[in-house]
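Each field is set out as follows.
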Amino acid sequence: MSTDTTGTGFWRDVLTRLRGWRTVDIVVAAVIGVAIGVVFWLWNIVWTVTTPLFVGFPPGQAVVYGMWLISGVLGGLVIRRPGAALLTSIAAASVSAVLGTQWGIMVILDGALQGILPELVFLAFGYRRWGMGVAVLAAAVAGISPAIRDNITYNVAWPLEFKLAYGLIVIASAAVIAGVGARLITTALARTGALAPFPSAQG
């Protein structure tokens, strides 16, 4: 199937999908956002508890980072409309912020960034391709945001090799946990019939 982004047909199809948002799409995006937001809050605790385990090599803790990137990828895979990844990612980050996080309100900015990036991957495929490869790519691209921002904001004192290692591990963790994980969750939900109102009901 063509993924040419230069033709008018491509953009016409994307705009049609964008205008096609239904109430059920918005509700499910919100539900996914709230559910994953609670998981994020719990994952904040996991991060804090596991920090001492990586005192010898702090970048190694990034192996668990991918969970924080799953909302946008999962929202996109389930709803399959332009903006779904961004909406679910912001919703999840907002819930996490409300519940309380050591990073404060900045998690909402992170949620926006981590929603926009997978959104661009889904756009590149015209919101037509939803397989494992696209899911993993979308998640890995989402990981670019924390790979850069965390090094600039939180890891300033680290040596360059630690920063590079951190960035690579974050992206790899995103690909596996958020990419493979979101694709498997979508397939599992489809098998239960829970996604009947969506094209993703086919898996």
